[in-house]
Amino acid sequence: MGLIAFMEAVPPTVWGFLVGSFITVVGVALTNASNTKRLRLQHAHERELDARARDLSMRRDVYLNAFEAMATGMTTVGSFGELDIPFQDLMRQYMGKAGAMGKITIVGREETIRAVADFEQALTGAFMRLSGQRNGVDQLYRRTRELEVKLDASAQEQERLATLLERADGGERAALQRSLEHERRRSKELRAEQAEVEVAFNPAMMGLIRNSMQEVANLDTMIVPVVRCVRNELGLPFDDAFYLQLIRAGHEQRAESFEGFLQESLGTPNAARPDEA
After folding, report:
1. CA distance 86 to 23
2. 152 alpha carbon, distance to own chain's centre
3. Is the pLDDT of residue 146 over 90?
4. Are 77 and 127 in contact (CB under 8 A)?
């Protein structure tokens, strides 16, 4: 039987069944192909979202640690006037966190890296300027403490000699009297030196505090570009003009309060400005 005869012998219902089955198979195949493509696109999109989430999480952690280091550095600058804290202890906390800023070079964009580098350079400059000034104030401060110790010792010695003098007689009394007068002259000289040191110490101390406040104000301005760049990378809006306005208003208010404190505590309207000292 030839092929044509065979095809003519097949009932039409069978042909209908075969054609319908073929169409069904083709439809299923096309549907599966479409679903497979859609799943691949979905998985690719999910992988992209996961990669972006990991990237943002890493950036966020790096930037949070970096900002903590910057804040610690600014706090250190603002604490230069706290003479009861040794200079080594003052710098130790910042030095333990300073390395966090360097990690920005790994994950940050070029603009962010440049802004952080500018801030770090400004912070280093503030440390250098204030360190020299702090050293001079520290010397005066240590001298005032030494004089206080000597004056306390002299007062105790005078009290001891006066007690002995009340109980002494004869030649011993004359020797004790000379020792007491010598100690009184020594105490007077110490007080004169103390007054002289305080005349130099007070304006130097106020100048150090004033300059540290100004350095913090400058650093606050320098950190604004860093905040803007980081928030741009994280897809967060930021109004740097508004933020700058807030910063400057806050520092102006603190500066006015400090000058008011000086006027009230020292009783001099133009007390202890560095250019007038």
Report:
1. 88
2. 41
3. yes
4. yes
Q: What is the pLDDT of residue 234?
A: 80
Q: What is the pLDDT of residues 25-76, one digit of tens each?
A: 555 555 666 666 666 655 555 555 445 555 566 778 888 889 999 999 999 9
Is residue 5 predicted with pLDDT exceeding 70? no
Q: How many residues does the chain have?
A: 277
| Residue that is written with structure tokens 């920005």 in the block | 104
Euclidean distance between CA atoms 210 and 217, whole angstroms: 11
Please report the pLDDT score of residue 267 as a whole number: 58
Asked if 119 and 222 touch (Cβ cutoff 8 Å), the reply is: yes
CA distance 109 to 63: 12
Q: Amino acid identity, residue 213?
A: M
Amino acid at site 111: E
Query: 3-class DSSP state for residue 231?
Result: helix
In the chain the domains, ranked by start, together with CATH numbers, are 13-266 (1.10.287)
Half-sphere exposure of 157 (CA within 13 A, CB side): 17
And the tokens for 203?
A: 């304006």
CB 94 within 8 Å of CB 74: no
Cα 163 to Cα 154, 167, 183: the distances in Å are 14, 7, 14
3-class DSSP assignment, residue 98: coil
Q: Burial code of 194-203, b = ≥16 C-beta within 10 A, e = fewer?
A: beebeebbbb
Residue 92: pLDDT over 80: yes
Query: How many other CB atoms are found less than 10 A from the CB of residue 132?
Result: 8
Closest-CA residue to 66 (of 120, 138, 133): 120
What pLDDT, on a 0 to 100 scale, did the predictor assign at position 247? 82
**85 backbone φψ class: left, alpha, beta (φ>0; ψ -120 to 50):** beta
Dist CA 241 CA 234 (whole Å): 19
